[in-house]
Write a structure and sequence with these properties.
single chain; alpha/beta; Rossmann fold; N-(1-d-carboxylethyl)-l-norvaline Dehydrogenase, domain 2; 2 domains; 14 helices; about 10% strand; binds 1,4-dihydronicotinamide adenine dinucleotide; binds 1,3-dihydroxyacetonephosphate; EC 1.1.1.94; lipid metabolism; Glycerol-3-phosphate dehydrogenase [NAD(P)+]; oxidoreductase; nucleotide-binding
C-alpha cells in the first residue's frame, strides 16, 4: 500500500496524519518550508497542533517528491493558497485521487477546491472531505463524523474505506458542490455568530442568525445546483452548528474579537474572511440575496460598522419564513 500524502502541515493535515497513522498506514506530511518541517521533526510535534506527538509512521518532509507517487493525497493547506500550491507543485503529484480538506472559496477566481484541482491536476479524481471536526478532537481520537464527497461513486466508496478509522466515521455523497459550499459558507456564518456574541446581542439572536444564515447557505448552494440534503447534512448544518457555537472555532473567535473590538492575531487561519468577500461579490453579480454574508464582508472591510450592519439586517422588510 502506498504512502498517504498530505499536502499542508497545519493543524488539520497533522491531525489527519496522526489518526490515519494509528491504523498502521504510512503517512508523509509535506510542509512548504524546510525550517518549519525541521522544527516539527525536532519537537516531534507541530506547533499548530500543540500537545500531539507524531507516531513513527508519520514522516515530515519539505520535498514535494516525497508525496509525488502517493496514490492518495489530502490537500490541507488554507483555501487561499491552494491554487498557487497546485500551480507550482501539482505537476509533480501523480495521485489517482486528491481529497480537498480546505474550506472556502478562492477570492481571486470565485472557485472551490474541486474546480481548482481539476484545472491544475486534470488526471486526478477530485474529492472533498468536510464536516464538523476540530483538528484537536480528531487527533485525540474523539469520535468524529465527516462527509466524503466525490462525483465518481466508485472512487468515493474506495476513499470512504481508506479514510475511515475506528474514531473517524465517513459518510459518502456524490454532491461535491454541496459539500464544498457547506464547508465554505458556515465559516462566514461563524464570524457573524461571533460578532453577535461579542457585541452582547445574546443567545436568542445567535439562534436566529444561525437559522437565517442556514437559509442563506441553502439559497446560495441551490443556485449552484447543490442538493438540499447535502446542506442539511454534516458538511452544512452539522458544521454550521459546531462552528457557530464553539470557542474552539477560529472563525467564531475572530467574530467575537470583532464584536468586542479586540485584537486578533493575523497569523491565525480564518477562512471565513476571504470567503465572505468572495461570496458577497458572487452574490451581487448573480443577484442572490445574501444579507448576512454581505454584512460580514462589509464589516471586515471596514465599509460598515457593526451597529450599522445590525440595524440594516433588522430593518429588512418583514416576510414569510
Ligand atoms: N483546524 C481545524 O480544526 C480544521 C481545519 N480545516 C480546514 O483545513 C484547512 C487548513 O487549516 P488548518 O490546518 O487548521 O490551518 P493552520 O493554520 O493550522 O495551518 C496552515 C498551514 O498551511 C501551511 N501553508 C501556509 N501557506 C502555504 C503555502 N503557500 N503552501 C503550502 N502550505 C502553506 C502553513 O505551513 C501552515 O502550517 C483550512 O481550510 C481549514 O478550514 C478543516 C477542518 C478542521
Ligand atoms: O472547520 C472547522 C470545524 O469543522 C474548524 O473551524 P475553524 O476554522 O473556525 O477553527
Amino acid at each position: 500500500m502506498s504512502v498517504i500524502g498530505i499536502a499542508g502541515a497545519g493543524a488539520f493535515g497533522t491531525a489527519m496524519g496522526v489518526v490515519l497513522a494509528q491504523t498502521g498506514r504510512e503517512v508523509a506530511i509535506w510542509a512548504h518550508e524546510e525550517t518549519f518541517a525541521e522544527e516539527i521533526r525536532q519537537r516531534n510535534e507541530n506547533a499548530r497542533l500543540p500537545g500531539v506527538k507524531l507516531p513513527e509512521n508519520v514522516a515530515i518532509t519539505s520535498d514535494i517528491d516525497d508525496i509525488g507517487r502517493s496514490e492518495l493525497v489530502l490537500l490541507t493547506t488554507p483555501m487561499q493558497v491552494l491554487a498557487g500550491m497546485l500551480q507550482t507543485h501539482g505537476g509533480r503529484l501523480s495521485a489517482r485521487a486528491m481529497v480537498a480538506c480546505c474550506k472556502g472559496v478562492d477570492l481571486a477566481t470565485g472557485r472551490g477546491p474541486v474546480a481548482i484541482i481539476a484545472e491544475n491536476c486534470p488526471a486526478t479524481v477530485p474529492a472533498v472531505l468536510t464536516g464538523p471536526s476540530f483538528a484537536a478532537d480528531i487527533a485525540r481520537g474523539l469520535p468524529t463524523a465527516l462527509t466524503l464527497a466525490c462525483a465518481d461513486p466508485g472512487v468515493g466508496a474506495a476513499l470512504q474505506e481508506q479514510l475511515s478509522t475506528p474514531t473517524l466515521r465517513l459518510y459518502r455523497t456524490t454532491d461535491t458542490v454541496g459539500a464544498e459550499l457547506g464547508g465554505a459558507l458556515k465559516n462566514v456564518m461563524a464570524i457573524a455568530a461571533g460578532i453577535v456574541i461579542g457585541t452582547g446581542l445574546g443567545e436568542s439572536a445567535r439562534a436566529a442568525l444561525i437559522t437565517r444564515g442556514f437559509a442563506e447557505m441553502q439559497r446560495f448552494a441551490r443556485a449552484y445546483g447543490a442538493e438540499p440534503e447535502t446542506l442539511a447534512g454534516l458538511s452544512g448544518f452539522g458544521d454550521l452548528v459546531l462552528t457557530c457555537t464553539s470557542t474552539q472555532s477560529r472563525n467564531f473567535s475572530f467574530g467575537v474579537a470583532l464584536g468586542k473590538a479586540q485584537y486578533f492575531d493575523p497569523e491565525v487561519t480564518v477562512e471565513g474572511a476571504a470567503t465572505a468577500r468572495a461570496v458577497a461579490a458572487i452574490a451581487t453579480a448573480r443577484g442572490i440575496d445574501m444579507p448576512v454574508t454581505q454584512s460580514v464582508a462589509h464589516v471586515i472591510d471596514g465599509r460598515r460598522s457593526i451597529s450599522e450592519a445590525v440595524k440594516i439586517l433588522l430593518s429588512r422588510p418583514l416576510k414569510e419564513e
